[in-house]
Amino acid sequence: MEPFAIWGNFIYTEGPEKLCLRPNSVAVCKENGLCDGVFDRLPDRYKGIKLKDYREFITIPGYCDMHLHAGQYRNQGRGMDMQLIQWLERLTYPEESMFRDLDYAKEVYGELTADLSEGFTTRAAIFSTAHTKATLLLMDELERTGLKTLVGRVNMDSNAPDSIREQDAAYSLAETRDWLNQVRDKGFLRTQPIVTPRFVPSCSPALLKGLGELAGETGLPVQSHLDENRDEIEWVRQLHPNSPSYAAVYDENGLLGPRTLMAHCIYMTDEECALMKERGAYVVHCPTSNTNVRSGIAPMRKYLDMGLHTCLGSDISGGHTLDMAEVIRQAIGVSRALWQLDEGHPAYLTAQEAFYMATEGGGSFFGKAGSFQPGYEFDAVVVDDTGYCQRKDAMETRFEQLIYRGRDSMVVDKYVAGECAIDRTI
Amino acid sequence: MEPFAIWGNFIYTEGPEKLCLRPNSVAVCKENGLCDGVFDRLPDRYKGIKLKDYREFITIPGYCDMHLHAGQYRNQGRGMDMQLIQWLERLTYPEESMFRDLDYAKEVYGELTADLSEGFTTRAAIFSTAHTKATLLLMDELERTGLKTLVGRVNMDSNAPDSIREQDAAYSLAETRDWLNQVRDKGFLRTQPIVTPRFVPSCSPALLKGLGELAGETGLPVQSHLDENRDEIEWVRQLHPNSPSYAAVYDENGLLGPRTLMAHCIYMTDEECALMKERGAYVVHCPTSNTNVRSGIAPMRKYLDMGLHTCLGSDISGGHTLDMAEVIRQAIGVSRALWQLDEGHPAYLTAQEAFYMATEGGGSFFGKAGSFQPGYEFDAVVVDDTGYCQRKDAMETRFEQLIYRGRDSMVVDKYVAGECAIDRTI
Question: Whole-prediction pTM value?
Answer without folding.
Answer: 0.96
